[in-house]
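Support case: molybdenum atom complex. Customer-provided input:
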Amino acid sequence: MNSERPEKRGTPVGRRVFLGTLGLGALGVYAAPTLQRGTEAFLAGASQLDPSGLTGLLPNGGGFRYYSVTTSVPHKDATNYRLTVDGLVDHPTTYTLDDLRALPQTRMVKDIQCVTGWRVPQTPFEGVRLSHLLDAAGVRGSAGAVRFTCFDGAYSESLTLEQARRSDVLVALRMQDEDISHAHGGPVRLYVAPMYFYKSAKWLSGITVTEYVKPGYWEDLGYDVDAWVGKSNGRDDDPTS
Ligand SMILES: Nc1nc2c(c(=O)[nH]1)N[C@H]1C(S)=C(S)[C@@H](COP(=O)(O)O)O[C@H]1N2
Ligand SMILES: [Mo]
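Agent response - structure generated as follows:
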């Protein structure tokens, strides 16, 4: 690999692998999109060697793969989970898990599609509409986007404000009619039904209303920011929503 040393926690494995790939030379530049998808696939394999606790669940339960760009992620539950909503809002708010559970819940059942090709049909997700949290926070007129951060300390995502206000975008508490497991990004993950699954940030801890979209973790590595299933990333999958 390269000269970067592993850190105690939160090492961005994907970036390390990707930089290693670029180390191959100019080929890395021309072949970048393919190599990046290869990188994500590699991570699914890498997590099989991961002593973080995800290991026992692999490989690939029920059509899913378990992805994390870090080597370990802290476990959070109702005692210590917090979600902050801040940025260009009138009322910055911090929610506990119980706070989120007390809000109106929306359930939907749609296919999930990862940009690397795997699809899981008819997967129930349930949680609070992101639009509900945005309305409660009072989004200011200057706002144009929403940025999501995660308690793995590395992953990030973003949506335009218009995308974020869609009724099929959830701050999800349940998946497959169970509380979201740690491996799947619990206790709370984002769920963006009409977009490739990389938009659905796991281990969600921060929602920041911003002026402009800032590309997320995989988007910095080449994935499309507007990640509509079937209409982005050079793919023609059937829509999920
Ligand atoms: N925090 C975080 N969220 C993430 C990822 C990740 O590595 N870290 N991977 C993304 C990608 S590429 C996919 S396909 C899905 C995988 O979700 P799963 O592990 O529940 O199958 O999570 C998305 N959200
Ligand atoms: Mo993915």
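The chain has a mean pLDDT of 82.

Case will auto-close in a few days if no follow-up is received.
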